[in-house]
Amino acid sequence: MNKNLWEEGNRALAEGGFEDKSGPEPGNSQRLSREYMDSLWLEMRCIDSQAADTRMNLFGETFAGPVFITALSGLDKVCPDGMAETARGALKAGVFMGMGIGEEEELLRIAGTGARIVKFVKPHEDKKFVLEKIASARKAGVFALGMDTDFFYGSRSKPRDFFPQPMGPKTLGDLKEFIKAAEVPFIVKGVLSEADAYKAAEAGAAGIVVSHHGGSALEYAVPPLLILPRIRRALGREFPILVDGGFRTGADVFKALALGATAAGFGRAVMTGLVKEGAQGVERVLKETIGELEWVMLHTNTPDLGSVDPSVIWGRQQS
Ligand SMILES: Cc1cc2nc3c(=O)[nH]c(=O)nc-3n(C[C@H](O)[C@H](O)[C@H](O)COP(=O)(O)O)c2cc1C
After folding, report:
1. What is the mean pLDDT of residues 250-279?
2. Which of 52, 75, 115, 296 could form a disulfide with 254 if both were Cys (CB 3.0 to 4.6 A apart)?
């Protein structure tokens, strides 16, 4: 993405209380994941290069690229009507948007923009409350539902009882129940092991998000891009595997695709556009990212997303 927007947006976000979470402290998972992403390089395949088609299909719909806005919340503190502005940007860019914690009224407002929304319900301890949230999201017309199962004790900075409705761990049986109640595709977010990937699939999830919640779930969490190939092997070729954590550019997205992802989620990067330019900034970040992805595809002889060849990726251990 545009370097100035990234830097200016980050400064504005920090001034507004949204600190960058990829700090220098040992074990910072967000920083470690970014470092791993940066340790992967791309070879070029220019001869016979063809036009590149970035379009992605998910759950029967077509999007402009394998890029989405990952589960976000509380964006009114970033920009007036921030969640709806973000949704407008997503709609214009032709991608879908994840909504995290937030009330029904806010969900209705963002769904009313016409954007395709995935509502991620929190793993509240009270199962009845979760089922109510699922029902109201379904009624709001979301494209898909999901749950950030890694948030079962809240985050390190927000202990379990911080929320009016406390969080609690979820079992395979609970997930099965939620997925049955959803009636739309259900995405389990916060998967960072083969074990949980198998359980999500067994529960009937339509997809997963490989994620450590921007580092807030665990220190020294394995970088999503490092574990992705294993999870892809575990779930097979066709299973939708989304990923998030520190994505900024189209090259980042390409690396994720080459390692087994279906699409990559953008959180903070989209917020830098939002804080500077509202919906237009969101649209700009997303469109520029898809443009960068197309550039990488052109230079790696990748005509479409089905043709991404993992052997294009180089790591430090290779020569
Ligand atoms: C402001 C903000 C709010 C978030 N709210 C939620 C949420 O409600 N539910 C959720 O599953 N994840 C939430 N996340 C985590 C993101 O979905 C994502 O996992 C994480 O930010 C990593 O992506 P990024 O590095 O691109 O920001 C939030 C992240 C941010 C920055």
Report:
1. 98
2. 296
